[in-house]
Specification:
The structure is a single chain. Helix 6 packs across helix 10 and helix 7 packs parallel to helix 9. The strands form three sheets. This protein has a four-stranded mixed sheet, covered by helices on one side. Strands 5-8-9-10 form a four-stranded parallel sheet, with helices on both faces. It has a two-stranded antiparallel ribbon with strand order 3-4. It is an alpha/beta fold. It folds into two domains: about 220 residues, Rossmann fold; about 120 residues, no CATH class. It contains ten helices and ten strands.
Length: about 350
């Protein structure tokens, strides 16, 4: 089976990942630290990797819900005491002849919230674990569950809502969880109750296996459909990430270009033509200015040879990273023209607002 763990909206949440044999889960440049802003210990820095697979599930839930205990039980680590995750751990296991399971445990807390949701596109199903014996956090857990279920990349995917710690007196029943978590309105969600922690193989809760199989069985039945959705989700996620990066770069470029087109006075930090073209040719790793394409020279003149703009323009044409797709000079000119127009429009709007305020 699969699992992915990470942190939840308030404390520990783990995302785990599973797989049969086709899709591949990847992560890149993961950063994670603990401590205060003044004194922080870096646990993860620039961690990248991938997990091959197919059928993939996410195991998520608030801290203390029993996610790590479930992983330990599935691995046969009955004597191991669970600890809150503060780093990265990968686990692989073979569920059956057809299904390989890759799992990873990634710390979460508040700093990780924007990171672990990015992996929803990879999953075919979800396991959401709740400490059914902790009534004080039930409302928080239900609120988190509903928020997660509303995410577009998890909507209508098979979900197992687990009421863990059934060995504790007073633990919420499956019916109580269905009601408080609003499962009745979610046909893709099934509820299973068991105790994830076990001291030995013979002590494993007999309800655990059928509960997990109820999720994995649906994932297998819907595998082709879910795999197509995973592929589509990952493609759209990649496009969204590329768009965010592009917009961020353009915001920076806009701030810099404003120096080339000040509201009054002379352009700031700009070279003359000769020095500007020389700088651009060096940025593009050319041996001389004569090798610059005509549109490159036009772009340099368009931005008034502003130093930082030329550096950014050169990086657009010849990216430092091989993973970044270079832009054509036609595309670069479009970007520069669009940003210049945005600067003009913003100033016109500010003028209109100032005029309206005076009236």
């Amino acid at each position: 089976m699969t699992k992915e763990e990470q942190h939840d909206l308030t404390k520990d949440v783990h995302l785990v990942k599973v797989a049969p044999f086709t899709s591949t889960f990847t992560w890149a440049d993961v950063q994670y630290g603990v401590g205060t802003s003044e004194k922080e210990k870096q646990i993860l820095k620039g961690v990248s990797g991938s997990l091959g697979g197919g059928e993939t599930c996410a195991i998520i839930g608030p801290s203390g819900a029993g996610k790590t205990s479930l992983l330990n039980t599935l691995q046969g680590k009955f004597a191991k005491e669970p600890k809150s995750s503060q780093g990265f751990e990968q686990v692989s296991m073979q569920l059956d002849e057809q299904t390989k399971v890759n799992m990873y445990d990634l710390a979460g807390n508040a700093k990780m919230r924007d990171i672990w949701v990015n992996y929803y596109g990879d999953v075919h199903g979800v396991i959401f674990m709740v400490d059914a014996a902790d009534a004080t956090r039930m409302e928080e857990s239900a609120r988190t569950f509903k928020q997660i279920m509303s995410h577009k990349r998890l909507s209508n995917k098979p979900v197992l809502l687990v009421g863990n710690k059934q060995d504790v007196a007073g633990a919420a029943t499956g019916e109580a969880l269905r009601e408080s978590f609003g499962v009745g309105a979610l046909p893709n969600v099934v509820v299973g109750c068991f105790s994830a922690k076990a001291d030995s193989e013979t002590a494993v809760d007999e309800r655990l296996e059928p509960a997990l199989e109820s999720l994995l069985g649906v994932c297998k039945e819907r595998y082709e459909e879910l795999e197509q959705r995973v592929a589509a989700d990952l493609a759209s996620f990649k496009q969204e990430q590329e768009k965010k990066k592009r917009e961020q770069k353009e915001r920076v470029l806009k701030r810099v270009m404003e120096k080339a087109f000040p509201e009054s006075g002379e352009p700031v930090e700009c070279w003359d033509e000769a020095d500007g073209l020389q700088a651009l040719s060096e940025e593009m790793l050319l041996s001389s200015v004569d090798e610059l394409p005509p549109l490159a020279k036009e772009a340099a003149a368009f931005c008034r040879y502003q130093k930082m703009v030329l550096q950014m323009v050169g990086a657009m044409a010849v990216p430092v990273s091989k993973k970044t797709t270079p832009l054509t000079w036609e595309q670069i000119m479009e970007v520069l023209a669009r940003i210049k127009q945005a600067i003009v429009d913003a100033r016109l709007k500010m003028g209109e607002l100032a005029g309206a305020a005076m009236v």
